């Protein structure tokens, strides 16, 4: 019988500092009603000075390990676009801080689709027989990479980390990932980009522009591509595994914008009541958004064992991906409510 990757633990972490829409309105020309109407976001959390992506990843990973009831894994896969530094990777440091020993660990960069890519990578490691358990972490701190005067990005992003423990198991048991659909399109690489620090920007031999230090996005175009790619990927996956939209208990998309998620549901003829929303409380947390949403929903009881769950994501690159599972009986460790 083939080996499957089975979700056995999940945990999440956000920073202490809560930033509501009223505070954002002191930075850019906007207001609470405009932000809620356009994005669905009410607040987000930003890391204090000295707190890194790796710090949040360690805490999320610790909670996921506790949720799974284990203190060891064979591999750490960390999805992030905001590592502690360009080199070395952040994952080995996270593994060390978690006391996991000299196991392999690597960073994976697929923007907001990173967590799904990480699950796919972990599933391959388990299916090959090289790993029995894998810790997958999605973590990003975008607050330090945002132009405080750019309304297109300043109102959207929050910081956070989410993690999941996967173990080898039976393809038919709850928690087993039923399949994946992934894709990318580099022709649209400039729709969301952070130039500073990369070899292309440095190879130009020109002085670093201040704008190069900040994330730049073309929001309207991103919206269209996000809807098309997540709906298409989700549909392709469901057809491959023999599920129907009507079978879904929860549709869990990348938490970027409530209008995007609702539009994807409409395109797929899915019930909007089944769209899991968490972005209102944390904003767009990039690679952390799906595990944060899952942890929160499992902790408060919305996600129940046996629920059929579809996960889908979209990010810069362009990159996108989807997977699905029957939700297992797992104890989710979410961050304590913050005010």
From TrEMBL:
Which BP terms does GO give this entry? Answer: fatty acid biosynthetic process; secondary metabolite biosynthetic process
The chain's coiled-coil residues are none
Beta-ketoacyl-[acyl-carrier-protein] synthase III C-terminal domain residues: 238-327
Residue ranges for the region (ACP-binding) are 255-259
Q: Which InterPro entries match?
A: ACP_syn_III_C, ACP_syn_III_N, FabH, Thiolase-like
Q: Where do the catalytic residues lie?
A: 112, 254, 284
List the GO cellular component terms.
cytoplasm
Please quote what the entry notes about the protein's domains.
The last Arg residue of the ACP-binding site is essential for the weak association between ACP/AcpP and FabH.
Name of the protein in question: Beta-ketoacyl-[acyl-carrier-protein] synthase III
């Amino acid at each position: 019988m083939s080996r499957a990757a089975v979700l056995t633990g999940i945990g999440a972490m956000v920073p202490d500092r809560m930033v509501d829409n009223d505070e954002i309105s002191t930075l850019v020309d906007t207001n609470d009603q405009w932000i809620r109407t356009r994005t669905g976001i009410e607040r987000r959390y930003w890391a204090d000075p000295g707190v890194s992506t790796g710090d949040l990843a360690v805490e999320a990973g610790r909670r996921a390990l506790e949720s799974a009831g284990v203190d060891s894994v064979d591999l750490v896969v960390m999805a992030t676009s905001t590592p502690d530094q360009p080199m070395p990777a952040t994952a080995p440091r996270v593994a060390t801080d978690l006391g996991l020993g000299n196991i392999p660990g690597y960073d994976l960069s697929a923007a907001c689709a990173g967590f799904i890519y990480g699950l796919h990578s972990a599933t391959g490691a388990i299916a090959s027989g090289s790993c029995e358990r894998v810790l997958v972490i999605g973590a990003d701190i975008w607050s330090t990479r945002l132009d405080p005067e750019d309304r297109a990005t300043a109102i959207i992003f929050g910081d956070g980390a989410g993690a999941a423990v996967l173990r080898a198991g039976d393809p038919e048991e709850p928690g087993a990932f039923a399949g994946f659909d992934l894709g990318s399109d580099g022709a649209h690489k400039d729709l969301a980009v952070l130039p500073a620090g990369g070899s292309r920007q440095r190879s130009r031999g020109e002085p670093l522009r201040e704008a190069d230090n900040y994330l730049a996005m073309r929001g309207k175009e991103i919206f269209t591509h996000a809807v098309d790619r997540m709906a298409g990927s989700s549909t392709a996956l469901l057809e491959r595994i023999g599920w129907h939209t009507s079978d879904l208990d929860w549709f869990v998309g990348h938490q970027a914008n409530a209008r995007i998620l609702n539009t994807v549901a409409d395109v797929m003829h899915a019930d909007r009541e089944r769209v899991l929303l968490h972005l209102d409380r944390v904003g767009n947390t990039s690679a952390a958004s799906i595990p944060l949403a899952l942890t929160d929903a499992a902790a408060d009881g919305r996600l129940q064992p046996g629920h059929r769950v579809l996960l889908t994501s979209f990010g810069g690159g362009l990159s996108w991906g989807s997977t699905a599972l029957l939700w297992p009986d797992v104890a989710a460790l979410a961050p304590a409510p913050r005010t």
